[in-house]
Amino acid sequence: MPQVVKIGERWVGKGYPSFVIAEIGINHNGDLSIAKRLVDVAVMAGCDAVKFQKRTPEKAVPPEYRDVIRETPWGLMTYLEYRHKIEFGFEAYAEIDHYCKEKGILWFASCWDEDSVEFIEQFSPPCYKIASASLTDLPLLAKIRSKGRPVILSTGMSTLEEIEASVKFMNLDNLLIAHSTSTYPCPSEELNLRVIQTLQRRFDCPVGYSGHEVGLQTTYAAVTLGAAFVERHITLDRAMWGSDQAASVEPWGLMRLVRDIRVIEKAMGDGQKKVYKSELNARQRLRRSQ
């Protein structure tokens, strides 16, 4: 039986409700007030955690992209300048940390470089997320592992052999694996949700789903396939500027998603066929004696 992992005060894994993560990522566009509104949306919907992304621009942006000019809401600027524009510093994250504690929701981040791990560690996160792009970055994996916290490993744009190598490097202790396809937004025919079960058979740890599709139906399907956790990007408005907005879920959609996941979990039952008390009157009235 796959092991369970504790994130904060929540057990994640077989036998427990799906751990629902609202991925704020960089959809705040560097605006702390938007970040707080997105936290409010996640709390209102009943999510278990929100997730951010943290980068040290000089470390995370390849040299060949740093001086590329990009159109942004703040005008034309280099890609490196843009990355700095949307990064929160210590004061902003301290405010996020205080706000999430006040609202009673967990928060953590995917760190894209080793300096970012040290930065986020200042806030004692309940876990770390390794983005799909970083799955083969062994120095980063080692840095995250050294903190001794639960780790969610995302597997988009990866072969099974690459996943196996990273899992072997990390070891399974306190590890969770997220099936994902790194296309934004992702067409339904490329979601390949049955890989959730492939990973469950291959690895003795909780396996979940990180989705970038439009709509909610396929995330429900992931839950029925046994996803121990689900993660979806969230936004205030899919028409907002930003690379991840179109593949994100708006507030009312997030509320429906969490509500319906909880209904599905109740409806799945335990697999043991039984006659319920609510059926007895109909059974007595309608079932003919043999």
Mean pLDDT: 95
The CATH homologous superfamily is termed Aldolase class I
Reading off the top of the CATH hierarchy, the class is best stated as Alpha Beta
Query: In this structure, how is the largest beta sheet organized?
Result: 8 strands, parallel
Helix content: 25-40%
List the helices and strands and how they pair.
Blueprint: E1 5-7, E2 10-12, E3 19-25, H1 32-45, E4 49-54, H2 57-60, H3 63-66, E5 69-72, E6 75-78, H4 79-85, H5 90-103, E7 106-111, H6 114-121, E8 128-130, H7 138-145, E9 151-154, H8 160-170, E10 175-179, H9 195-202, E11 207-211, H10 217-224, E12 229-233, H11 251-268, H12 277-286
Parallel strand pairs: 3-4, 3-12, 4-7, 8-9, 9-10, 10-11, 11-12
Antiparallel strand pairs: 1-2, 5-6
Helix pairs in contact: 1-5, 1-11, 10-11
What's this, in brief?
By secondary structure, the chain is of the alpha/beta class.
What features would you highlight for this structure?
alpha/beta; 39% helix; 290 residues; 19% strand
Structure commentary:
This protein has twelve helices and twelve strands. It is of the alpha/beta class. The chain has a single domain, classed as Aldolase class I (TIM Barrel, Alpha-Beta Barrel), CATH 3.20.20.70. The strands form three sheets. It has an eight-stranded parallel sheet. Strands 1-2 form a two-stranded antiparallel ribbon. The protein has a two-stranded antiparallel sheet with strand order 5-6. Helix 1 (32-45) packs parallel to helix 11.
